[in-house]
Design goal:
mainly alpha, 2 domains
């Protein structure tokens, strides 16, 4: 099956549309909190959306800025929060390898959770011409990027009118809970979330929100350990079953 760049582009946009319904309120909340909580100038808050373009990192970053955290801690924390993008890039690398450098740079910039989710599924549909698959990725990524820029901009300019007495800080925690809970589908992700939550609570009193960085690291390690043990257990059970089958056949 062959397709055109135009059809692939709009297919990517259409695939992303349902997800954008959840992105819009997320962007609005970031914009409001960047102004009311972190007291960032509007141009700086907008720059974060256009340069960083990563919701989780922007939320964490503006929260750390609000308490006067040193820049190096902010950079390290947001780096850890976004380590998952390294896994995303490794996953899509075989599909974008033939592309020119300018395409790779553009698509890397547009790589987000939401764009990756629909793109990797599309990439694995091998019956579609490889030649134009990157246009699907571009359409999905651009749809997400545009929505994020607009929604955060509205939140930023509206945020200036929101009284601090409204106490919107709690929406940050609620937003992350809403993002995380649906993704806890196996033992590894659930164990990682529990471990990170415990460490975050225990380390809440640490300066510069260092408890958040520790929680992220412990959560990653816990998830990897559980995943490794689960894989080892599956291999062991498979071998035992094979041995039993061999014994019975003899």
């Amino acid at each position: 099956m062959t397709t055109s760049p135009r059809s692939e582009f709009f297919a990517g946009v259409r695939a992303e549309l349902p997800i954008l319904l959840g992105v819009i309120p997320f962007g609005l909340i970031y914009g409001v909190l960047a102004i009311t909580q972190a007291h960032l100038p509007a141009d700086v808050a907008l720059a974060m959306s256009s340069i960083v373009c990563a919701g989780s990192s922007q939320f964490v970053g503006q929260q750390l800025m609000a308490v006067g955290t040193p820049g190096v801690v902010i950079v390290l924390t947001t780096f850890i929060v976004n380590l998952r993008h390294a896994l995303y890039s490794a996953s899509v690398a075989p599909f974008v390898k033939p592309l020119r450098a300018r395409w790779k740079v553009l698509l890397a910039y547009l790589l987000t959770d939401e764009a990756y989710a629909v793109t990797i599924t599309h990439y694995e549909q091998t019956e579609i011409s490889v030649e134009h698959k990157h246009w699907f990725y571009f359409g999905a990524g651009l749809a997400l990027w545009s929505t994020w820029q607009l929604s955060t901009a509205v939140g930023i300019f509206f945020g200036a009118q929101v009284p601090e007495s409204w106490g919107l800080d709690f929406t940050l925690a609620l937003t992350f809970i809403a993002l995380v809970v649906p993704r806890l589908k196996d033992r590894a992700s659930t164990g990682a979330a529990i471990a990170a939550s415990v460490v975050a609570i225990v380390g809440a009193a640490l300066p510069y929100k260092l408890g958040l960085m520790a929680a992220a690291l412990i959560g990653i390690v816990a998830g990897m350990i559980i995943e490794a043990r689960s894989s080892s257990s599956l291999v062991t059970r498979y071998r035992e079953a094979s041995l039993r089958d061999s014994s019975e056949s003899e």
